[in-house]
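Notes, p. 3: input format for complexes.
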Amino acid sequence: MLDHNASVLLIYTGGTIGMFEDANGVLMPFDFNALKEYVPELQRFKFTIDTVQFEQPVDSSDMNPDKWQKLVWIIEANYSKYDGFVILHGTDTMAYSASALSFMLENIGKPVILTGSQLPIGKIRTDGKENLLTALEIAVDKDPEGNPFVTEVCIFFQNLLMRGNRTTKINAANFKAFNSFNFPLLAEAGTQIRYRHDLMHRPLRGSIPKFHYALDPKVAIVKIFPGMSAEVLKANSAIPHLRAIVLETYGAGNAPGEQWFLDIVDEWIKRGIIVLNVTQCASGSVDMERYQAGKSLHEIGVLSGYDITTEAAVAKLMFLFGLGLTRQDVKIALKMAIVGEITVAVN
Ligand code: ASP
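Output follows (347 residues plus aspartic acid):
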């Protein structure tokens, strides 16, 4: 049910949705007011839409923890004033931002929807209009008692509402640019918007939202590949005070069984670096017990990332170390789903 008395804060960070082509055909960000001119439909909504934009709209390739903090700050400062928040964001790093925000906005009881587009909103065939208009509708959709349907950080793209920290960008050209391989859709927009209320992440009863700012970016991603040399592997960890490595492995969490490889990973762990095993596959989960190639990693102390995405793994590690947790507590938290980012087996 659309709440016509509701209000949404539309936050514009940049990205293709609000870009124009310069004389050389290069896409450049433009002012948010210009974007509004291209979407006159916005004026037909009865609910209030206020807008705020980054002083310098950015291509999302320039997203970083500082800008995530800025988003958290905007949401915290406006949390009580609005029923929901829609963030316009470039698609390239949207899954990273959605993952980070899902941890930084703890116990939110309101929708925070990220969306963007593959074609600038000024183009006739743009996907941006539908994405924007439906994201706004979702941000004010409520049950008859006035409770919001969505109470978590999501990405809405091409008719699909996905848990933010489960998403991955899958296509650089198609309008269906995101997928949530390891977790079902939270809603699908057709003639009606059909929600999976049973899957929605809910804030703890009686809890108040908590806004986290501290992130520790001393995290690296190491993607293994056949032919990777010891030099290349070592170079990835030659960073002082590195806290964690997201090790992107094959299949169910497998890596070369050669001694030099295991020795280097063992040395990382002895240096106090947390090594989190995440599969290179788009879907499925790490299971280091399945093959010897995974078992050896487990034996030296590599942790399972289960079915987490690389995007969410990076964000979760930055967040956990940002909280100032001990290495031991970070290890415990990596086994738990904090905001639905991994599927924890119930035995
Ligand atoms: N490079 C753009 C960005 O991520 C692509 C997009 O918006 O789709 O900001």
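The pocket of aspartic acid is lined by residues 14-16, 59-61, 90-92, 116, 118 (CB under 6 Å).
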